[in-house]
Amino acid sequence: MSTAHPAGDFADYVPGKAEDAVLTGSTDADGFPAPYERTDRGARAAATSAVMLWGDPRFFSDTTWRHRMLAATAAPDAIDTLTSDTDATARLVSENRGVGEDGRTLDGGLLVTRTAVLATRTLADSDRTASIELWTASVGGVAGQDETQRPQIAFLRMTVDLAWTGGTWKATAVTPSEPLVPAPPAAEEAAPAGSFADVGGAADAPATA
Q1: Does the pLDDT of residue 98 top 90, yes or no?
Q2: Which residues contact 23 (CB under 8 A, 6 or more apart)?
Q3: pTM of the predicted protein model
Q4: Do residues 55 and 114 lie in contact, with contact meaning Cβ atoms separated by under 8 Å?
């Protein structure tokens, strides 16, 4: 049982054709999420959009887009730190994957990344701050000739810390934590059911919808 797909499976993958869900149902003039409500649901929606935006392929290959996204979604007090950290992360991924600003490798391979949020739960919240844990499924890799970089799936826990500022929730930190599901190496069977015991029941992370 393989955890990776052959490059041909991604032949029709076009990042710009896959629209991310925005839980407010609206976007601003720049295409980024419009203001969220000052509620627990609003905080969860803001955290969901933050994780999805940070999983966009442009996050890693397009510096201008990444900085515009942070300007729209990051809290002013945290933007310098977030910009520095995300620039370093994007540079590391691009260098390790051999990806240029067009999202492609020298041999024509395409960077494939996307994050889906499966469920959320609130760890802490107040009128001014919130901390949201998200259960996510992320795909990442390069669809191309290099079979060692084939896109693979990972199930992760992510924590998004938020601050209420400028009439909306904005991110102060986006932090990965322990894997939600142990990822088996390629060609090995999936983890046994017992590996899910410490995750808890589905009620621990209600669906976002």
Answers
A1: no
A2: 36, 44, 45, 48, 49, 208
A3: 0.77
A4: yes
